Amino acid sequence: MSDKYQAFTASPIGKILVKNLGLPAPVALERYTAGDPLVKGTVLVGGRGRLGESLPGLLDVLGVASTTAPSDGEKYKGLVFDATGISTVEELVELQAFFTPVLRSLSTCARVVVIGTPPAQLKGSARIAQRALEGFTRSLGKEIGKGGTVQLVYVADGYEDSLLSTLAFLLSPKSAYVSGQVVRIGTQKEKHGAEVSDWTQPLAGKVAFVTGASRGIGEEIARVLHRDGATVVGLDVPQAASDLQRVMKEIDGDWLTLDITAKDAPQRIAQHLKDKHGGVDIVVHNAGVTMDKKLANQNPERFGKVLQINLEAPERITAELLSQKVINANGRIVGVASIAGIAGNLGQTSYAASKAGVIGFVDSLAGSLKDGITINAVAPGFIITAMTAAVPFATREVGQRLNAMSQGGLPVDVAETIAWYANPASSAVNGNVVRVCGQMMLGA
Q1: CA pair distance 211, 312, nearest whole angstrom
Q2: Which of 91, 141, 252, 434 could form a disulfide bond with 180, CB atoms 3.0-4.6 angstroms apart?
Q3: Which is nearest to 402 in space by CA: 438, 356, 351?
């Protein structure tokens, strides 16, 4: 589904009306195409702290051109500021000293990343100053404009070398619809690592299991994981078998049709993954439904069905895969939550409860998983799909414009975020919930 309003604002008469009436003017977002460099331009690196000296070297590994010396007339595709050395409130002015002179030198769809230390690791003034970075980055994300994004990455002490996959994602067009987010690296008690020899195929040799894979966001997740080298096992209900088989054949994948709420579904899934693939490396719980009604008009069967599909089934399937050791070492579990589970939505008490529960599901497992297995979640905002095309026009327009980018996202934006979590080099990214919502004005 195309964004007709965005197309109108790019027309001659639309440009005039946008300028004279102060209407939102959504920028066409740059998205990654296989074979492209991660960053088409130069990244300016600044700040002082634990990562200052190593950042140019990390970017060099990714094939990203960088400089530490700003020059007049230069345009930058990204800014990376090491704020780990800021330990007092007074030192926060270093943010202004770095950013203000160069913000007007940013290209369209530029990327800004601020790196800090998790406040929980600190005390006193240092803790206060590091926590202040969240307000700074979220506000800058709403100012930057021109399709740009701003993120804060808290890197735990000792995990400086675990930043590569996160930089690759946040500085590239893969993070087109992710902004104003806080990513935490190094929350685990034990450190696990895995090198990536080919950043164009980081999932080569991996097996990925994706539920709800026949269409929409699930289909795009399967395609992006395949693009990155994974063998994909897609699952959907028997009614979607033909669409599922079509998608899996196109990406040389495998498929399984069943109802994930069935009593024996976890055992059947585990058996299939063991027998046909020897285990699984990436588990994506994407399948979900909405059965929207105001609570006063809701009935227990519909309310319970949403909870069973969206929340109970992922919990049961994951428990079975873990107990049978079907998930390989350094494996990835990803839940698909929703901005509705964070901010709530009119008429979506059951859906919002289930998606908030997905976040609780991540919280409940993040600290107990072993063998380098991680669990994270994505929380999509307004994503343009066939389902949202059926939403009434006025509601759809509000959903698309009520974010810093004044537009809806695409299924590929969710898929790219999941591919970042799935990357073997993301072993220190655990327990995160990243919102793929263009930085919604509410709940983000």
Answers
A1: 14
A2: 141
A3: 438
Same domain? 80 vs 158: yes
CA-based torsion, 410, 414, 417, 423: positive or negative: negative
Q: What is the mean pLDDT of residues 268-293?
A: 94
Read off the CATH number of the domain in which 80 is found. 3.40.50.720
Catalytic residue numbers, as ranges:
351
The answer on 181 and 213 residing in a single domain is no
Are 49 and 165 part of one and the same domain? yes
The whole domain housing 366 covers 207-436
Residue 1 lies in a domain: no
Q: Which long-range contacts (CB under 8 A, 24 or more apart) does 295-299 make?
A: 295/349, 298/349, 298/350
Sheet arrangement for strand 374-380? 254-257, 231-236, 207-211, 280-285, 327-336, 374-380, 433-436
Rg (CA), the chain: 22
Q: What is the dihedral of CA 431, 432, 433, 435, to 10 degrees?
A: -170
124-133, 163-172, 379-388, 409-418: least confidently modelled range: 379-388
β-strand pairing of 327-336 with 433-436: unpaired
The answer to whether residues 224 and 316 belong to one domain is yes
Which of 216, 223, 194 shows the shortest CA–CA distance to 281?
Answer: 194
Instruction: Give the E-state strand segments of 6-64 in sequence order.
Output: 42-47
**Nearest partner of 280 among 267, 265, 266, 269, judged by Cα:** 269
What pTM was computed for the model? 0.94
- Residue 83 shares a structural domain with residue 142: yes
**Angle 313-323/265-277 helices, nearest 10 degrees?**
50
Task: Indicate the burial class of 239 (C-beta count within 10 angstroms; 0-12, 13-18, 19 or more).
Answer: exposed
The reply to whether 281 falls in a domain is yes
DSSP 383-438: B-SHHHHTS-HHHHHHHHHSBTTSS-B-HHHHHHHHHHHHSGGGTTB-S-EEEESS
pLDDT digits 0-9 by tens, 86-137: 999 999 999 999 999 999 999 999 999 999 999 999 999 999 999 999 999 9
Cα dihedral: 384, 389, 394, 397 (round 10): 20
